[in-house]
Specification:
alpha/beta, ADH_Fe_CS, globular, six-stranded parallel sheet, Dehydroquinate synthase-like, alpha domain, Rossmann fold, 51% helix, methylglyoxal reductase (NADPH) (acetol producing) activity, 2 domains, binds 5,6-dihydroxy-NADP, 387 residues, BDH-like, metal ion binding, alcohol dehydrogenase (NADP+) activity, binds zinc ion
Length: 387
């Protein structure tokens, strides 16, 4: 097992209705000036906004609304102005990954006098800056942002979508599965595939060990089982709860301790989202089975066979189990009723394939750090296989 350091200080409040009794104090302990961030209006429709405002009674609340899916740098710029002008003490982010991701960068940008895009292209700058505490109320199970340091921010002017890491995870995360009952089937499926992909990026890694592999296999099985249940019964508490806790556990650092390789499918998908603004999890669902097929060889076969046996509960000879596991992955994505090809998300020609492949290889260090190294031509082939 490789050496590792693991520390995660996020205070998790999991379960029903904790916000009504605990949110005020969780926020107020950091100060009275609060920036409330949210997205395009789902929290107003669901009534969550009104509950939050009630819970914040007595605090000075400034709002930043309209943070979009695949959050754009302009939202972060708007947030930077608000936190500086109002000398904000704490950010309360209410929404999915996009709202929380943007809020984390705004939390750093309060202490930065330049353009916050600088903090995205060079995360190291954030290590030397203070960061406002984040309290969040998660409304969509997918990214793991509720318990990690990451954010992914898009810049439409440059066709870039890049990850950036701050010094801290959220201070407090409220995880109430009931708040995800209203998530659309499209976003529920995309979120489940995102969780599956986070596991895959860490499972297919030369540094994974028996402990982390076993944890991931259990999480995989929970997501595979509960995503269809949540689609069929959107208000099934246990299914929503399993997805929510899987989301958090898949990407809070725990199952990734000791890993060695950089991620592969995420940097490739981020190019699709950067150029075409597609839903992250849907893009991952299209690419993942193709990538698995592409990298299956004698060296990776034992890992695929383990994946097939312990995740998909398949039996038989290694080669057959490996192939069947990839097919099972494809079939599961398809069963969630999202597109499984690029034309299905309106990417109908190859005009950007080369540019996207070049950027993915460079940003993701795919040609030297990936589980199976990929060159630009390999990534183009993956896009072509997805048509
Ligand atoms: O904007 P509102 O109106 O809130 O609607 C959102 C949005 O349209 C809606 N939604 C959220 N909660 C809802 C709801 N609708 C009804 N009821 C609810 N309870 O869902 C839509 C998508 O929301 P978004 O926040 O974009 O989804 P998600 O949580 O999947 O986040 C995706 C973003 O996170 C990044 C992705 O690249 C993408 O930009 N990622 C962040 C990571 C991280 N920070 O660690 C890792 C991931 O790999 C990922 O890259
Ligand atoms: Zn993801």
């Amino acid at each position: 097992m490789n050496d590792f350091q693991f520390k995660n200080t996020t205070d998790i409040r999991f379960g029903k209705n904790h916000i009504d009794t605990e949110l005020h104090d969780a926020v107020a302990k950091f100060g009275s000036k609060v920036l409330l961030t949210f997205g395009g209006g789902s929290i107003k429709k669901s009534g969550l906004y009104q509950r939050v405002i009630k819970a914040l009674d007595g605090l000075e609340v400034t709002e930043l609304s309209g943070i979009e899916p695949n959050p754009k740098i302009d939202s972060v710029r708007a947030g930077q102005k608000l936190v500086q002008a109002n000398d904000i003490d704490v950010i309360l982010a209410v929404g999915g990954g996009s709202v929380i991701d943007a809020s984390k960068v705004i939390a750093s940008a309060k202490f930065y006098q330049g353009d916050p895009w600088d903090l995205v292209i060079d995360s190291k700058k954030r290590a030397d800056l203070q960061q406002l505490p984040i309290v969040d109320i998660l409304t969509l199970s997918a990214t793991g942002t509720e318990m990690n340091q990451g954010s992914v921010i898009s810049n439409p002017a440059t066709n870039q979508k890049l990850g950036t890491f701050g010094p801290n995870t959220p201070a407090v995360s409220f995880l109430d599965p009931q708040l995800t009952y209203s998530v659309s089937s499209w976003q529920t499926a995309a979120g489940a595939i995102d969780i599956f992909s986070h596991l895959t990026e860490q499972y297919f890694d030369q540094g994974a060990n028996d402990v982390t592999s076993g944890l991931m296999e259990g999480l995989y099985r929970a997501v595979i089982k509960n995503a269809p249940i949540a689609l069929a019964e959107p208000d099934n508490y246990d299914a929503r709860a399993a997805l929510m806790w899987s989301s958090t556990m898949a990407l809070n650092g725990l199952v990734g301790v000791g890993t060695e390789n950089s991620w592969t499918v995420h940097p490739i998908e981020h190019e699709l989202s950067a150029y075409y603004d597609i839903t992250h999890g849907v893009g991952l669902g299209i690419l993942t089975p193709r990538w698995m097929t592409y990298i299956l060889n004698d060296a990776t076969l034992p890992r695929f066979a383990q994946f097939g046996r312990n995740v998909w509960q398949l039996t038989g000879a290694d080669e057959q189990v490996a192939k069947d596991a990839i097919q099972a992955t494809y079939d599961w994505v398809k069963s969630l009723q999202v597109p499984t090809t690029l034309p299905g998300v309106d990417i109908k020609d190859d005009q950007h394939f080369l540019a996207m492949a070049k950027s993915a290889v460079q940003v993701g260090q795919l040609n030297h750090a990936a589980f199976v190294p990929l060159e630009v031509t390999d990534v183009v082939k993956l896009f072509e296989a997805s048509m």
